[in-house]
Each structure stands twice: as C-alpha cells, then as structure tokens.
Design the sequence.
C-alpha cells in the first residue's frame, strides 16, 4: 500500500470510528429510553440490563454505519480540501479519482459488512431483544394490563377494565374478571366498581383487591349432559371487598430470555424470508380464492347462461322485467336487492381481514428487498458525502455535521415513505424498498461529476450570465434607437 493510500485511509478512519461510536451510543440510548417503562420497578439484575443493551447495540449498528460513513467522508475530504492537500496532489498529477480510490474500496467493504449484519446479526438481535422486552413486561403484570380490552397475560384469568389510574397506575375502574382456574369455561364471573393491584418485589403472588362488586358462579359438573347442567345450582352474591391472590411465579428472572416469538418478519434471514414468502403467498391466494367462490355462489351467477338463438322466443322483450307481471316484478326486485345488500355486507365484513392479510404479506416482502437496498446505503452515502466534502472544502464537526444530518434524514424519510406506501400496496415491495436509492442516486452522480470537474456545488454564473447578457443587449438597442 502506498503512502498516499495509507494517509487517505487514516484521514477517513479516525473520524469514522469517532462518529460511528457517538451515533451508535445515541441510538442505543434512544432504544433504552423507549423501553425504560418496561424496566422501571421490575427488579431486574444488571446482567439482564446489559444483555438488553448488547442486543440493542447489535440492532443499531447497521443503522449507525451508513451515518458514520456519510459524516466521516464529508469531514475527511472537506479537511483535505480546506488544507489545500487536494490542490497539492492535483498539482503533482494525482487525480481526484486516484486519491479517493482506497476509500471507494473501503465503502464497498463496509456495504458488505452491513449486509452481513443485516442478514445474520440483526435478525438474531431482534429475536432476543423482542422476546426479552415482552418477558420483562410480563414480570410485573400490573404494568402490562391494558384498559378497554381483555388481558390474557395473567394465567387462568381474563381481566378487563375501563381505566387505570393512580401514581403507580395500580388502581382500576369498572373491572370484569373471568376466572378460568377451574378449567370449565367462564363459569365464574366477577364484576366490581373499583380494584387495586398490590404486588411486592420478590413475592410470588399478586393481590387484586376488588370493591363494590358482584360475584356469580355456575356449578356445572364437567362432562354432564345439558339437561343435568340446567338442574345444577349456581351462586351469586354482592360484596363490599373481595380479594384474589394470583400466582405470578412464572414471571421470574429465569423466564426473561425465553423465546416465545420466533417467526416475526424482522427475525428471519434472507434465506428464511425466501422460504417463508411462497407459503404466505399460497395462503393469501387461497383466501382470495375462497372469497371469490363464496361471492360466485351467493349471487348464483352459475344460473346465468346464454340460450342458442334458435331457442330464443322472438316475443320476449329485451327489457327483462317487462316480461313479468307487476307482482312478480316486485318479488324479483326485492330478491335481487336483498342479495346485493347481503353480498355488499359480506364484502365489508371481510374488508379488514383482506387488508390485514395483504399487509402482513407485504411486510415480509418489503423486508426481503429492504435488506439488500439498505446494505448498499454505505456506498450510496459515501458517493454523496465524499464529493460534497471536496466541494464545500470545510472539515470539522460544524457544517459537515449539519449537511450529514440533512442528507441522512432525507434518505431515511424517503426510505420510510417508500416502505409505508409498499405496506399499503400503493407501490410494489421492490419499488418501495428501493425508492430512496432511486431518488438519491442521481444526487450522488451529480455531486461526483461536479467534484471530478472541480466545480462548485452550483454554477450560479451559468444561470445569471445569459440573463444579464440579454438585458445588456436590450438596453444597448434602446440607446441606439434614441
């Protein structure tokens, strides 16, 4: 390796490692801040927290890498231009392409590293972190309960309530509980105006204190006939206060790293996604086929057929209803209207299901193409940052930092926008995943050409010179006529 190549690589790598570590730290702290509510008051050990941070670091690394490449390329080449080192190299007959050649190879290498991370390390980190987050959330079930819907996380109980309030958010309003501990269905139902959850750190029980409620239990014997069940007794009573002790020993530190969710789209490698997509598409096509067959059967379209011309009655009017009596017309119209309304109602009821199934399939499809597109972001952002740094001729953390943030925000927003459109089926999965690359690539080409030709970012003289020349000609003609 020549001295010039070593010097250029050193000028790039020193700011790269600094910026990469800073950005990685910021992203990890953001993840930790978003998950802070899951950690608070759970009595987690330091080992569990450090493991969570490690998985978060592995997840953030592929996102921090392109930002580091972009910022360090602007800083390093801007510093070389600011210190007239590029000018000295050019005067010695060394072209810009030759100067940045080692950095181009390095950008290719970083894109390859980013691809390896996205394909192997990132899915593993998501798998471990997501399961850990869910298990930590369950460690103190009082914080996991969500108002307005049935909560099934607590074993043997289904709990629903309207509101959760109080400083510790352990007070409940309008509580409904299905006790399933007898394994005989919803035979035991408890309602209460208010409730309070009491859970002590280290205790294997969570106490639920209910106030001003009603208790009902149907004493059905398991396996008895319906006639006998009708004769079985039932008990009900009102209460001022009722206490339930729930065993929550399953939510211990030993279960924090259990893997209960393993098939999410961002937990799979490219090979696994490629194997999973055909199965999902077959299921989706089967769903569409079943809906089409139901629609075909409901409107009885198989009864519509053509008669041969020789069998058509010449006296039959083309206006079909005019061939029937008035009372038959009403019957026909009412039957047709009823079938149309029923068909439209069925389609509306399946609209949400259809949309969710299509969206679920799109997520896997988008993830497959986005892994490849995002791995090339290091190369793309290098070809934006490197020429931009040589054009602005400014090193350090000031202007380069502002430009890097603006460029990456544009890239990230465009990538997210494309993925959202593809998720809603407004774009194909491959178009939505590559949208940011398609938009930013012309910018990279433009900046590279301008830097290679040793021109500024914009040549304002080429824009204003023809305008000023036109005005000069106009004024000169007026003077001659006078």
Sequence:
């Amino acid at each position: 390796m020549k001295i010039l190549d070593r010097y250029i690589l050193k000028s790039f790598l020193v700011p790269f490692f600094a910026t990469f570590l800073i950005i990685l730290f910021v992203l990890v702290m953001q993840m930790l801040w978003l998950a802070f509510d899951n950690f608070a008051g759970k009595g987690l050990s330091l080992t569990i927290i450090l493991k969570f941070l490690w998985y978060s670091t592995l997840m953030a690394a592929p996102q921090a890498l392109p930002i580091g490449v972009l910022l360090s390329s602007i800083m390093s080449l801007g510093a070389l231009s600011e210190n007239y080192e590029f000018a000295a190299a050019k005067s010695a007959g060394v072209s810009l392409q030759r100067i940045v050649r080692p950095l181009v190879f390095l950008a290719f290498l970083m894109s390859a590293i980013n691809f390896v991370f996205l394909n192997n390390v990132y899915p593993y980190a998501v798998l471990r972190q997501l399961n850990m987050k869910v298990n930590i959330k369950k460690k103190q079930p009082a914080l996991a309960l969500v108002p307005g819907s049935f909560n099934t996380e607590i074993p043997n109980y289904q709990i629903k309530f309207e509101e959760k309030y109080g400083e510790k958010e352990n007070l409940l309003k309008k509580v409904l509980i299905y006790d399933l501990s007898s394994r005989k269905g919803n035979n035991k139902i408890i309602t209460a105006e208010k409730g309070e959850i009491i859970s002590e750190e280290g205790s294997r029980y969570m106490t639920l204190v209910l106030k001003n409620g009603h208790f009902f239990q149907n004493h059905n014997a398991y396996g008895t006939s319906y006639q006998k069940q009708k004769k079985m007794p039932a008990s009900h009573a009102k209460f001022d206060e009722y206490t339930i002790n729930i065993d929550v020993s399953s939510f211990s530190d030993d279960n924090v790293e259990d893997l209960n969710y393993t098939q999410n789209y961002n937990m799979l490698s490219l090979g696994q996604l490629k194997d999973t997509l055909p199965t999902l598409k077959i299921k989706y096509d089967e769903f569409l086929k079943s809906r089409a067959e139901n629609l075909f059967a409901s409107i009885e379209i198989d009864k519509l057929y053509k008669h041969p011309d020789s069998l058509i009655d010449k006296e039959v009017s083309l206006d079909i209803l005019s061939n029937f009596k008035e009372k038959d017309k009403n019957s026909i119209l009412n039957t047709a209207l009823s079938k149309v309304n029923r068909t439209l109602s069925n389609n509306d009821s399946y609209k949400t299901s259809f949309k969710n199934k299509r969206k679920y399939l799109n997520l896997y499809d988008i993830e497959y193409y986005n892994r490849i597109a995002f791995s090339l972001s290091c190369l793309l952002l290098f070809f934006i940052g490197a020429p931009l740094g040589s054009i602005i001729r400014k090193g350090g953390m000031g202007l380069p930092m502002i430009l890097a943030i603006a460029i990456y925000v544009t890239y990230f927003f465009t990538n997210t926008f494309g993925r959202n459109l593809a998720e809603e089926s407004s774009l194909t999965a491959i178009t939505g995943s590559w949208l940011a690359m398609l938009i930013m690539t012309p910018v990279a080409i433009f900046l590279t050409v301008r830097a290679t030709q040793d021109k500024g970012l914009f040549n304002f003289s080429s824009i204003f010179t023809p305008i000023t020349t036109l005005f000069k000609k106009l004024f000169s003609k007026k003077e001659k006529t006078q």
